[in-house]
C-alpha cells in the first residue's frame, strides 16, 4: 500500500524508530547516504554546492556532503546560520564533516554544477525569505540542477503549497514514505523525479500511525476489484443506468454509458427523454435505451432493483427537473454518481442534496466535481486540495472525487487518495463523462464506493496514457480493455 505521511506523522515515525532502538544518527546517516548515492548514480561528476539549513534537513546535507566528498566529488558546503547553534544529530554530523563550512550568502550557488538543497525539509514553518530566497532565484536563473533532500525548501509537506519561494528540483529524495505535498499539484511541479528511500524505519511504524492518506495505486483497491466468474450472467454483473439530457445534449450520457459497459457492468441502459430517444437509439448498440421523462417515471424505472447504479449529470441541464431526478434516484436506494449539472443544480440548496444523501433509503453516493463545481457546492470549504476534498466528503456523506491533474478521492470516514497517473491529454471535452461512467460501471458490480472511485480515476489515467497524443473522450472507453489486461 502506498501510504502518504503528513509532516506530523513522519516525525512520529522517526521518534517511533528511535524509541525502538534505531538511533536518530543512524536514520540521518542513512538519509544523507541515500541522497549521495542517488546523486552519484544519476549525475556526471560536477562541483556540488551543498546548502545546509539549521535543522535536521541540514544534518542530512552534512552527511551527503561527506559521502560525495569521499567519492571524489568536489563539494562546497554552505550553512544557513551559525554552526554553534546546530543541535543534536545535525551538530554531530557537522562535526563529522571534515571540509570547510562556509556561511550561506547570496552567491553560494555561483559556478556550481549541481546544488543539493538541504535547507528546509519537514520543519518548514514560515515563508522563505532572505538568502535562501535569493539562492532559489539564482538557481532558477542559472538553470543549475537541484537535488532536494526530503522536500524542496519552501514547499510544505502537507499541502504542496509554496511558502514564499521554493526550489524547482530535478530530483527529490524522500524517506520512508512520500508526503501529500510531493503529489499535490504545486508540489509536483517542484519535486522533479521523486525517489523514496528506506532509512531504517520499520514498516510496523505504520501500525502505530494508522495513516489514512494514500497515493492512488492498484494495491489500494485491486483486492475489491470486480472480476467476472464462471457462472456469472449479465444480471449478476450489475445494471448501470445513465440519465440522458435532452435532444441537443445527449453525447455526454452516451460517453458515460459506454464507459460503464467497458468497466464491466453486465448491462447499461440510457434513460432518455422521449424527445431524444431517436438520437440516442441511432447511435447505440450494446447500450440499451428506454424512454424516461419525469422524476416519477425515473422512480418507476428504478423500482426494478436490478438497476443498481445510476449516473446523472452529464448533459442533464441545470435546474429543478435535474434536482428532482437526483432526489428520486437517492430515494430508490441505487448507488449514484453525481456529476456536472447534477451538482450545479444544487448550487443554491446544497443542504437539500446532503440531507438526501444521508437519507435512510439512499445508496452510496459519489460526487465528481471539478474545481468550479466544487466551489458552487462547498462555498466555504478552504485549505489544500486534500483538506477540501476530505471536508466535503464528510459534509456530504459521500465519496468526493475532486478532479484535476492531481485528482483527490476522499471518503466521509477520512480516507483519501491522491492520484498521480493522469496525463495532460485527459484535459479534453467529455473526459469527465467517461470517468463518471467508469465509476458507475464499477458500482453496478457492487464494488465499494471509495475503492470504485479510486480504481476508476486510476483506470481513466492509464487509458489516457495508453492512448497518448490525439486523445479524444471517445477513445478512453476503448482503451479500457488494454489497461485491464495489463492490470490482471
Ligand atoms: N530523526 C529525524 O527526525 C530525522 C529527520 N530527518 C530530516 O530532518 C528533517 C526535519 O528536520 P527538522 O524538524 O529539524 O526541520 P528542518 O530541518 O526542515 O527545519 C527546521 C529549522 O528550520 C527553521 N525554519 C523553518 N522554516 C524557516 C524559514 N522559512 N526561514 C528560516 N528558518 C526556517 C526552523 O526554525 C528550524 O531551525 C526532515 O525533512 C529530514 O530531512 C532525517 O535525517 C531522518 C531522521
Ligand atoms: K530540502
Automatic annotation (TrEMBL):
<dbReference type="InterPro" id="IPR004443">
    <property type="entry name" value="YjeF_N_dom"/>
</dbReference>
<feature type="binding site">
    <location>
        <position position="252"/>
    </location>
    <ligand>
        <name>(6S)-NADPHX</name>
    </ligand>
</feature>
<dbReference type="Pfam" id="PF03853">
    <property type="entry name" value="YjeF_N"/>
</dbReference>
<keyword id="KW-0456">Lyase</keyword>
<comment type="function">
    <text>Catalyzes the dehydration of the S-form of NAD(P)HX at the expense of ADP, which is converted to AMP. Together with NAD(P)HX epimerase, which catalyzes the epimerization of the S- and R-forms, the enzyme allows the repair of both epimers of NAD(P)HX, a damaged form of NAD(P)H that is a result of enzymatic or heat-dependent hydration.</text>
</comment>
<feature type="binding site">
    <location>
        <position position="117"/>
    </location>
    <ligand>
        <name>K(+)</name>
    </ligand>
</feature>
<feature type="binding site">
    <location>
        <position position="150"/>
    </location>
    <ligand>
        <name>(6S)-NADPHX</name>
    </ligand>
</feature>
<keyword id="KW-0511">Multifunctional enzyme</keyword>
<dbReference type="InterPro" id="IPR036652">
    <property type="entry name" value="YjeF_N_dom_sf"/>
</dbReference>
<comment type="similarity">
    <text>Belongs to the NnrD/CARKD family.</text>
</comment>
<dbReference type="InterPro" id="IPR029056">
    <property type="entry name" value="Ribokinase-like"/>
</dbReference>
<feature type="binding site">
    <location>
        <position position="153"/>
    </location>
    <ligand>
        <name>K(+)</name>
    </ligand>
</feature>
<feature type="binding site">
    <location>
        <begin position="403"/>
        <end position="407"/>
    </location>
    <ligand>
        <name>AMP</name>
    </ligand>
</feature>
<keyword id="KW-0067">ATP-binding</keyword>
<comment type="function">
    <text>Bifunctional enzyme that catalyzes the epimerization of the S- and R-forms of NAD(P)HX and the dehydration of the S-form of NAD(P)HX at the expense of ADP, which is converted to AMP. This allows the repair of both epimers of NAD(P)HX, a damaged form of NAD(P)H that is a result of enzymatic or heat-dependent hydration.</text>
</comment>
<feature type="binding site">
    <location>
        <position position="315"/>
    </location>
    <ligand>
        <name>(6S)-NADPHX</name>
    </ligand>
</feature>
<dbReference type="GO" id="GO:0046872">
    <property type="term" value="F:metal ion binding"/>
</dbReference>
<keyword id="KW-0521">NADP</keyword>
<dbReference type="GO" id="GO:0005524">
    <property type="term" value="F:ATP binding"/>
</dbReference>
<feature type="binding site">
    <location>
        <begin position="121"/>
        <end position="127"/>
    </location>
    <ligand>
        <name>(6S)-NADPHX</name>
    </ligand>
</feature>
<keyword id="KW-0630">Potassium</keyword>
<feature type="binding site">
    <location>
        <position position="370"/>
    </location>
    <ligand>
        <name>(6S)-NADPHX</name>
    </ligand>
</feature>
<feature type="domain" description="YjeF N-terminal">
    <location>
        <begin position="10"/>
        <end position="207"/>
    </location>
</feature>
<dbReference type="InterPro" id="IPR017953">
    <property type="entry name" value="Carbohydrate_kinase_pred_CS"/>
</dbReference>
<keyword id="KW-0520">NAD</keyword>
<protein>
    <recommendedName>
        <fullName>Bifunctional NAD(P)H-hydrate repair enzyme</fullName>
        <ecNumber>4.2.1.136</ecNumber>
        <ecNumber>5.1.99.6</ecNumber>
    </recommendedName>
</protein>
<comment type="subunit">
    <text>Homotetramer.</text>
</comment>
<dbReference type="GO" id="GO:0016301">
    <property type="term" value="F:kinase activity"/>
</dbReference>
<dbReference type="GO" id="GO:0046496">
    <property type="term" value="P:nicotinamide nucleotide metabolic process"/>
</dbReference>
<feature type="binding site">
    <location>
        <position position="57"/>
    </location>
    <ligand>
        <name>K(+)</name>
    </ligand>
</feature>
<keyword id="KW-0413">Isomerase</keyword>
<dbReference type="InterPro" id="IPR030677">
    <property type="entry name" value="Nnr"/>
</dbReference>
<dbReference type="Pfam" id="PF01256">
    <property type="entry name" value="Carb_kinase"/>
</dbReference>
<keyword id="KW-0479">Metal-binding</keyword>
<keyword id="KW-0808">Transferase</keyword>
<dbReference type="GO" id="GO:0110051">
    <property type="term" value="P:metabolite repair"/>
</dbReference>
<keyword id="KW-0418">Kinase</keyword>
<feature type="domain" description="YjeF C-terminal">
    <location>
        <begin position="217"/>
        <end position="487"/>
    </location>
</feature>
<dbReference type="GO" id="GO:0052855">
    <property type="term" value="F:ADP-dependent NAD(P)H-hydrate dehydratase activity"/>
</dbReference>
<feature type="binding site">
    <location>
        <position position="433"/>
    </location>
    <ligand>
        <name>(6S)-NADPHX</name>
    </ligand>
</feature>
<dbReference type="InterPro" id="IPR000631">
    <property type="entry name" value="CARKD"/>
</dbReference>
<feature type="binding site">
    <location>
        <position position="432"/>
    </location>
    <ligand>
        <name>AMP</name>
    </ligand>
</feature>
Amino acid at each position: 500500500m502506498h501510504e502518504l505521511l503528513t509532516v506530523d506523522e513522519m516525525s512520529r515515525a522517526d521518534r517511533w524508530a528511535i524509541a525502538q532502538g534505531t538511533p536518530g544518527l543512524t536514520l540521518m546517516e542513512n538519509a544523507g547516504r541515500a541522497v549521495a548515492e542517488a546523486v552519484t548514480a544519476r549525475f556526471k561528476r560536477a562541483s556540488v554546492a551543498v546548502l545546509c539549513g539549521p535543522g535536521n534537513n541540514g544534518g542530512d546535507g552534512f552527511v551527503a556532503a561527506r559521502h560525495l566528498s569521499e567519492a571524489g566529488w568536489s563539494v562546497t558546503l554552505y550553512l544557513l546560520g551559525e554552526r554553534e547553534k546546530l543541535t543534536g544529530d545535525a551538530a554531530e554530523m557537522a562535526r563529522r564533516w571534515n571540509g570547510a563550512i562556509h556561511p550561506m550568502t547570496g552567491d553560494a550557488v555561483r559556478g556550481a554544477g549541481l546544488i543539493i538543497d538541504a535547507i528546509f525539509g519537514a520543519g518548514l514553518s514560515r515563508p522563505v525569505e532572505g538568502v535562501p530566497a535569493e539562492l532559489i532565484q539564482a538557481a532558477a536563473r542559472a538553470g543549475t540542477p537541484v537535488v532536494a533532500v526530503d522536500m524542496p525548501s519552501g514547499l510544505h509537506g502537507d499541502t504542496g503549497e509554496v511558502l514564499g519561494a521554493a526550489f524547482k528540483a530535478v530530483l527529490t529524495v524522500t524517506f520512508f514514505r512520500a508526503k501529500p505535498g510531493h503529489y499535490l499539484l504545486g508540489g509536483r511541479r517542484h519535486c522533479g523525479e521523486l525517489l523514496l528511500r528506506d532509512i531504517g524505519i520499520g514498516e510496523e511504524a505504520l501500525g502505530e500511525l494508522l495513516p489514512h492518506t494514500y497515493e492512488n495505486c492498484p494495491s489500494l483497491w485491486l483486492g475489491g476489484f470486480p472480476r467476472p466468474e464462471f457462472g456469472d450472467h449479465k444480471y449478476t454483473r450489475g445494471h448501470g443506468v445513465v440519465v440522458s439530457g435532452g435532444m441537443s445534449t445527449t453525447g455526454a450520457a452516451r460517453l458515460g454509458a459506454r464507459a460503464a459497459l467497458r468497466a464491466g457492468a453486465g448491462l447499461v441502459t440510457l434513460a432518455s427523454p422521449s424527445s431524444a430517444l431517436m438520437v440516442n437509439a441511432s447511435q447505440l448498440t450494446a447500450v440499451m435505451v428506454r424512454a424516461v421523462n419525469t422524476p416519477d417515471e425515473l422512480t418507476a424505472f428504478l423500482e426494478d432493483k436490478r438497476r443498481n447504479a445510476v449516473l446523472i449529470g452529464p448533459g442533464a441541464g441545470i435546474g429543478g427537473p435535474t434536482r428532482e431526478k437526483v432526489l428520486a434516484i437517492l430515494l430508490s436506494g441505487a448507488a449514484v454518481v453525481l456529476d456536472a449539472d447534477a451538482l450545479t443544480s444544487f448550487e443554491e440548496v446544497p443542504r437539500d442534496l446532503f440531507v438526501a444523501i444521508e437519507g435512510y433509503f439512499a445508496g452510496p453516493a459519489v460526487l465528481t466535481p471539478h474545481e468550479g463545481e466544487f466551489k458552487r457546492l462547498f462555498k466555504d470549504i478552504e485549505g489544500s486540495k486534500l483538506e477540501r476534498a476530505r471536508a466535503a466528503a464528510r459534509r456530504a456523506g459521500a465519496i468526493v472525487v475532486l478532479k484535476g491533474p492531481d485528482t483527490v478521492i476522499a471518503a466521509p470516514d477520512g480516507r483519501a487518495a491522491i492520484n498521480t497517473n493522469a496525463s495532460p491529454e485527459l484535459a479534453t471535452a467529455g473526459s469527465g463523462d467517461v470517468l463518471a461512467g467508469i465509476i458507475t460501471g464499477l458500482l453496478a458490480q457492487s464494488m465499494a464506493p471509495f475503492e470504485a472511485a479510486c480504481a476508476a480515476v486510476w483506470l481513466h489515467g492509464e487509458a489516457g496514457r495508453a492512448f497518448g497524443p490525439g486523445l479524444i473522450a471517445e477513445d478512453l472507453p476503448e482503451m479500457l480493455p488494454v489497461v485491464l489486461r495489463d492490470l490482471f
